[in-house]
Design a protein that fits this description.
Number of helices: 4
Number of strands: 21
Mean pLDDT: 83
Largest sheet: 6 strands, antiparallel
Strand content: 35-45%
Radius of gyration: 43 Å
Structural class: alpha+beta
Order of helices and strands: HEEEEEEHHEEEEHEEEEEEEEEEE
Distance between the termini: 81 Å
């Protein structure tokens, strides 16, 4: 019995000893961590750079001809012949399509006969009036009949002349809309035509924050997937004064200085617009961004020996630099290394020279 009591007392003493030592170790560890947490975090800093810069505006658009139109007959009738097809290049004055002229020619011949008769009648009545054989009323009626016949002949000649479609200039048939044998009305489009004497344009849409940065005459670099590894020069020739009511964007037009030979309507172009106006930006290395969400960013500015959080607006990223607007000055020091370990008001120390 005494032996059991002694063993129990010894076990309790051992347990108490372990607990005491455990508490001491925990206290020592806590004190050590506290000492480590109070040490300044080593960081590197950079100076803010200010520079007047023209930031390219990236957009995309579709190719159109500067001279686009629908071509149709000025009279109605049955289409007899269509001489060209989709994608064909044509010369100014080239015959593109023709109506069946049977009825039109008949009307023209009838009008010619009527005109000649009215002309003869008028001459006869004028002679008779001079001899006082007919009245003034008869003369006036004859003159009226001649005027009507002359108008009828003009209309018939117009219809005959415009029963064909000719190319208004050198250009390209974008689309053929009718086939021979079809009945067409006056003014109904038969072809979609694009003149090639004028340069091609690219229509794009910009948001309000972009359109305020550009001016007519600004230059552009234009790229096409159809022409890889090539760039083309363009000039900004039109800026809309009102937004598109569906898209909410402002339409602009960029005219190509030199047109690629196989360029076609509907090609997609990627454009870098270079504003002629330069703005003053704060420029930092990209690694100085602690956080970024679209155009909103966070950096840390060094004040005394503490890190202070600053919100900035990101304009763009160019290579390894980020252009921002924000509450920072050119002599401020911005933390660019060690950001993973710091927060607002963290105590820091600089190692290395500022960049």
């Amino acid at each position: 019995m005494k032996t059991r009591k002694v063993a129990l007392i010894i076990g309790i003493l051992i347990a108490l000893s372990i607990l005491v030592f455990s508490c001491r170790d925990k206290k020592t560890t806590t004190n050590t961590n506290a000492t480590m947490d109070s040490r300044p975090i080593p960081v590197k800093v950079v100076q803010v750079e200010e520079k007047l810069t023209a930031v390219p505006i990236h957009t995309a658009g579709m190719v159109y001809s500067q001279q686009e139109s629908s071509l149709g007959f000025k009279t109605g009738g049955i289409i007899k012949t269509v001489f060209v097809g989709n994608g064909e290049r044509v010369r100014e004055g080239q015959l593109l399509a023709q109506l069946d002229l049977s009825e039109v020619r008949g009307s023209h011949q009838k009008a010619e006969v009527g005109f000649e008769k009215a002309k003869r009648d008028l001459k006869r009545i004028e002679n008779l009036y001079k001899e006082q054989v007919v009245t003034l009323e008869a003369l006036e009626n004859s003159r009226t009949a001649f005027s009507v016949a002359s108008s009828d002949l003009d209309i018939a000649a117009f219809n005959l002349r415009h029963s064909t479609i000719k190319a208004p200039s050198d250009g390209l048939i974008l689309r053929k809309l009718k086939e021979p044998g079809e009945l067409t009305n006056a003014g109904t489009p038969i072809f979609e035509f694009a003149g090639t004497r004028q340069n091609w344009i690219i229509k794009c849409g910009l948001v309000d924050t972009e359109v305020v940065k550009i001016n007519l005459g600004d230059t552009a670099n234009v790229f096409f997937d159809a022409f890889p590894n090539q760039s083309f020069k363009g000039t900004l020739t039109k800026i809309s004064n009102a937004p598109d009511r569906h898209q909410g964007t402002y339409e602009i037009e960029v005219e190509l200085v030199k047109t690629p030979e196989r360029l076609k309507k509907g090609f997609i172009a990627k454009i870098d617009l270079i504003p002629s106006e330069k703005l003053l930006y704060k420029i930092l290395p990209i690694e100085s961004l602690a956080e970024a969400n679209q155009n909103d960013g966070t950096i840390y500015k060094l004040e005394a020996n503490q890190a202070k959080k600053v919100k900035v607006k990101i304009e763009t990223i160019m290579n390894d630099k980020v252009l921002v607007f924000g509450d920072i000055e050119s002599n401020d020091r911005i933390i660019a290394d060690g950001l993973t370990d710091i927060g607002e008001n963290s105590t820091v120390e600089i190692f290395g020279e500022p960049k």
